[in-house]
Amino acid sequence: MHSAREALRLKPDFADAYLQLGCALHFDQNTFPEAAAAYQESLRLRPNQFLALANLGDVNLQIGRFAEAKDCFVKAASINPNDPKLHHLLGKTYLKLGMRDEAFRECEVLKDLDATLASELSNWLNNEK
């Protein structure tokens, strides 16, 4: 995290440094609001940055902002449609939003990408009846 902050001190418009800062805050410190702010700044500088979108979606999912999570995941999927973890998280998000048909479609997509994640999502679908 220190190196990301130092990079931002030297170059405040460095999108990747905001991404790295967001990752440190998100995954190492579980400080979700601060992580979200770092990801949002990274996206302001580079709007179609897949990892910042996916991670911001995960932060939103973690803090219960399901509609915002969905929007991030859908946009990230348009950039990288073959990321199984992304489809898994999108399926979970659809379930949180009560969108079972959409969650089922994500499960179908996952079957071709990662059978284990597809099975996990399918179990959640079956338990959410």
Offer a few descriptive terms:
single chain; 129 residues; mainly alpha; Serine Threonine Protein Phosphatase 5, Tetratricopeptide repeat; 2 domains; 81% helix
Task: Note down, in words, how this protein is organized.
- 81% of the residues lie in helices and 0% in strands.
- With 129 residues, the protein is mainly alpha-helical.
- It has two domains: 1-65, Tetratricopeptide repeat domain (Serine Threonine Protein Phosphatase 5, Tetratricopeptide repeat), CATH 1.25.40.10; 81-129, no CATH class.
- Helix 1 runs antiparallel to helix 2 (15-28) and helix 5 packs antiparallel against helix 6.
- The model has no long low-confidence stretch (mean pLDDT 91).
Cα distance spanning the termini: 42 Å
Structural class: mainly alpha
Oligomer: single chain
Number of helices: 8
- The radius of gyration computed from the alpha-carbon positions, rounded to a whole number of angstroms, is 16 Å
Whole-number tally of structural domains: 2
CATH architecture of the largest domain: Alpha Horseshoe
Main sheet overview: none
CATH superfamily of the largest domain, please?
A: Tetratricopeptide repeat domain
Q: Which descriptor suits the 3D outline?
A: elongated
| Helix and strand element order | HHHHHHHH
**Proportion of residues in helical segments:** over 70%
CATH class of the largest domain: Mainly Alpha
Strand content of the residues, in percent?
under 5%
- Secondary structure: number of strands: 0
